[in-house]
Amino acid sequence: MEKKHLLILSGAPGIEVGNIADLLQKKLLWTHIDMRESLKESDFKADFYDGNKNGVKEISNLIVSLSHVNLESDPSLRTRLIISGFFNSYQVIHIPELIDNFGSPLFQYGLVSLYMSDDAKLEKRLELMSEEINEVALRENKSFRERSPIKNEYQIESSSTNEEVVLKIIEVLGDSLSYGASF
Questions:
Q1: Confidence (pTM)
Q2: Which numeric CATH code is attached to 4-179?
Q3: Which of 82, 138, 151, 152 has the highest Cβ tally under 10 A?
Q4: Cis before residue 105, ω within 30 degrees of 0?
Q5: What is the tens place of the pLDDT at every residue in 113-144?
Q6: Domain coordinates of the chain in residue numbers?
Q7: How many CB atoms lie within 10 A of CB 97?
Q8: Mean pLDDT, range 157-172, rounded to an integer
């Protein structure tokens, strides 16, 4: 059975993770699953903004669901998937454990955590958002920026244009994106 390749993009609000994933999807022709819709569900939203640990359940549910998809019965779902979302740093550090427990050996995966070095630039992007979101975004951006990378994670500075960030992602992940090699 062919393994499913997952590329999981995360970052704080204002980093434009969803827009970057959309551009990456168009460039690579991978299927994009946008978890921003989950933020409309109050439990997941509360977990993200409060920094609670329960939001990990949403990610594990997605991984379990993807592991049960039969690619032969659903040809519209490709074996190469981009999952994007506003996962907080706590949630991201648990993704390898979740995939190893629920998805292995079905998945090859890579994590890309986007952050901005310049908080003032992020604050500029957040001007139209609420104060609550601004506080969370700055806290999470700092967390992504300051922690050490975890298993299969690439941390990428994303202060440049979205198109330039996509090129950085492709450069960092290299041949694994086009040839299906392990991340």
A1: 0.82
A2: 3.40.50.300
A3: 82
A4: yes
A5: 999 999 999 999 898 888 888 898 999 999 99
A6: 4-179
A7: 13
A8: 94
Reduced to 3 states (helix: H, G, I; strand: E, B; else coil), residue 76 is coil
Tokens of 28: 């690579």
Alpha-carbon gap, residue 144 to 138, rounded angstroms? 10
How many angstroms separate the CA atoms of 71 and 175, rounded? 23
- How many C-beta neighbours within 10 Å does residue 40 have? 8
Question: Can you tell me the distance from the alpha carbon of 39 to that of 148, in angstroms, rounded to the nearest whole number?
Answer: 26
**Structure tokens that stand for 44 in this block:** 């997941």
State CA 51 to chain mean position distance: 17
pLDDT at 180 over 50: no
Distance between CA atoms of 8 and 153, rounded to whole angstroms?
9
Q: 149-152 long-range contacts, Cβ below 8 Å, gap at least 24?
A: 149/113, 150/92, 150/93, 150/95, 150/96, 150/111, 151/96, 152/96, 152/109, 152/110, 152/111, 152/183
